[in-house]
Amino acid sequence: MAGKDTRGLEEIVEQHLAGTGWDADREEVARGMYRVIGLDPETSRRRLVLVVPAVTAAVTVEDIEWLVDDAESAGADIVEVTAAGTVTDQARQRADQYNISVEDPDSYQSTGGAGQQRQTQSRGRQQPPQQQSPGVDGGQSPPQQSPGVDSGQRPPRGQASQPRGQMSREGHSNANPAAMLSSGFRPVGGFLYGLLGFILSFTFTTIYFFYRLNEITDGNIDAVLPDEIQAFGWAFYNANMVDITVSAGGASVEVINYLDRIDKLNGVVFYGMIALMLFISGYSVASRVTDPLTGPEGAVAGASVVVGYLPLLAAGTFLFTTEELGATAGPEIGVTLLLWGIIYSVVFGGIGGYLSRGL
């Protein structure tokens, strides 16, 4: 009984080309993506195969477009793509438009396959018929030699440009930023878990604030906080780096930050509570995505909690603002609130989402 073939798909393709008469060579153009290029020593035709050996990988439209550009720069006559994983329907359609063959990996397992006899394919526009060379009787003109390539010369191994397409599974790299954002962003999950992160952050910071304030003042909390119920949420906004502004006649007369004003309150603990709650929220969003995500896509999914957290943080400024005798006191919507609301949710939610793909 024959042993299991332990060769990688890229090695199998290279050996198949070599066994069917091509001078073959391969190189890794990106992590988990290879190109195998062969030269027919008799006709100087070039054959280019894009190989994605990871079973968890998917070939996308962007990868096909990169292959078209690479094939043109290499002067390839026959262009193929093969993957141990999947090739998306859109990628297959785009490959068909450019006469790029999508081959099953099994077709490279034996020598003497169809690739040796396959006719030269033109990618994109059909080229006009070549003029018959002088002195050749009525027959087919001799094969056209690729510019700058001598017959029998191996294809150059110059460094290929990086693929533009996003490889949306493990083993892909150099993702297109726009594609990464669209594939990782989760507005619904981000809103729900952003809401959860807001509630948990508010609950834990407020409970801990009143617990510590009661200890510090020996139960005389009223000596520090005003009686208005709106002041109940001020410590939470202080933990979000937002000061409480007291205004009268349209001018600010006092700025309150209890975490700075009361020395025995450790502000780092409050900041850490919010960071931890948003980390958990971001982790939850990304870990519940059923589609495989890369680390950066997981980070985008986790950062989606900003959709729920930031609007609630802004809306709360109205809920926790009090007005009496022409004076108002409460957190204000401003650059500080927007900046730190985004930093907290995007950074710590994103870290949670990123780590969810590797834990």
From TrEMBL:
Region (Disordered): 99-178
Keywords: Membrane, Transmembrane, Transmembrane helix
Superkingdom of the source species: Archaea
Every DUF7978 domain range: 168-356
Residue ranges that the Swiss-Prot or TrEMBL entry lists as coiled coil: none
Membrane-spanning parts: 190-211, 268-286, 298-321, 333-355
InterPro entries: DUF7978 (IPR058284)
Bias type Low complexity, positions: 116-153
Key word Coiled coil present: no
The name this protein goes by in its record: DUF7978 domain-containing protein
